[in-house]
Design brief:
Layout (H helix, E strand, L loop, with lengths): L1 H21 L3 H14 L9
């Protein structure tokens, strides 16, 4: 169950990061994408 919740949160944060990059807010976009990779269970999860 936790994996699904973390995956959904990571996906939302990653999408927001991509949107920020398209809005010319490069630094925020990169930060959000890195956070999404750290949260996501498929990446380097902070919670495992």
């Amino acid at each position: 169950m936790w994996d699904l919740i973390l995956w959904i949160i990571a996906a939302i944060v990653g999408i927001i990061g991509v949107v920020r990059i398209f809005q010319k807010q490069i630094l925020w976009g990169i930060v959000l994408i890195v956070v999404a990779l750290l949260i996501g269970p498929g990446g380097v999860s902070l919670f495992t």
